[in-house]
Design a protein that fits this description.
Radius of gyration: 21 Å
Oligomer: single chain
CATH superfamily of the largest domain: P-loop containing nucleotide triphosphate hydrolases
CATH architecture of the largest domain: 3-Layer(aba) Sandwich
Shape: globular
CATH topology of the largest domain: Rossmann fold
Order of helices and strands: EHEEHEHHHEEEEHHHH
């Protein structure tokens, strides 16, 4: 083990936009993506709502329908990477959690099928699937802008004279608790005026004053991301093995590809590459199983 001097490196954007329906999440995501520059793709789970903003900037869209399993989101992310997009907007991530075929539904079905209705035990199988979706976003070579629906949390407090008053406690994203910890920046939007306020900001760009998102927001973020030190290039051997793992269509193919990838990473002592390829292997295994289960049920 050896400590080295901390240096902020160039990075890809990991941004979450949260807010209630109609607060401007899709619009804000497209404005930021335009400011970042490059090719833009949108995973649209909102029944084509992103396409209503096609006059704002040029982008391509993939309309993702149920079931909203983590594996289908991962497949869409990988498809965007292979197509060479610079920025991917995931609009929205809420469906992966609470939508039809999302994690909450998956966990309930798993509990009934394997754990006699014990949903707590079922999370041992559901959580790794959700984690692979998070890892797919964090490890992507693209800028990632993820939107999430939120609802206002309220509480009743004593107002005196035996009366009660409703007090707003803040916004809660309809995703797994702690979801916001995975991002560099989290901007919460409100319906009135479509103002944004940073609830998490590792860039120190936004402060505590509400503002309206524009393409300049993306330009400011791009300048900050590019102001770090150069990142180490991805080794060609790692890139090739990663693509092989992601392209496996059977368990036998995956086992052979994983053994080759694991051996190569261990010989080079490259732990980050090993971890990334292991995540890719697990995601591919889950996708193969899901496809097999779907074929069996059909």
């Amino acid at each position: 083990m050896q400590f080295t001097k901390a240096v902020r490196k160039k990075a890809k954007l990991r941004l979450a936009l949260t807010g209630p329906s109609g607060s401007g999440k899709t619009y804000g995501a497209l404005m930021i993506a335009q400011g970042l520059g490059g090719k833009i793709a949108v995973i649209d789970t909102e029944h084509g709502s992103a396409s209503l903003y096609s006059d704002l900037c040029e982008f391509d869209t993939l309309e993702l329908t149920a079931p909203y399993s983590p594996e289908r989101y991962i497949e869409a992310i990988k498809a965007a990477e292979r197509a060479g997009y610079d920025t991917l907007i995931i609009d929205s991530t809420t469906h992966e959690w609470s939508g039809s075929g999302g994690c909450l539904e998956i966990n309930e079905q798993t509990a009934q099928a394997k754990f006699r209705g014990n949903t707590w035990s079922a999370w041992n199988e559901t959580t790794p699937r959700h984690r692979r979706f998070i890892d797919a976003m964090l490890q992507s070579k693209m800028h990632i802008i993820a939107t999430g629906r939120s609802k206002t949390e309220t509480s009743q407090e004593d107002a005196g004279n035996g009366k009660k008053k409703v007090v707003k406690l803040g916004m809660k994203t309809e995703q797994r608790d702690g979801f916001e910890y995975e991002f560099t920046v989290v901007l919460d939007l409100v319906h009135d005026g479509h103002y944004a306020l940073a609830s998490k900001d590792r860039t120190n760009l936004f402060g505590s004053t509400p503002f309206r998102i524009s393409d300049q927001t993306g330009k400011d973020l791009s300048a900050w991301l590019e102001s770090g030190a150069d990142m180490q290039p991805v080794a060609p051997w790692y890139e090739e093995l990663l693509l092989t793992l992601e392209g496996c269509e059977s368990t036998d193919e995956l086992k052979a590809a994983w053994e080759a990838a694991k051996k190569a990473a261990q010989e080079r002592g490259d732990r980050p590459a090993y971890d990334a390829m292991k995540n890719a292997m697990e995601a591919a295994a889950a996708a193969i199983k899901e496809a097999s289960d779907a074929q069996t049920s059909a």
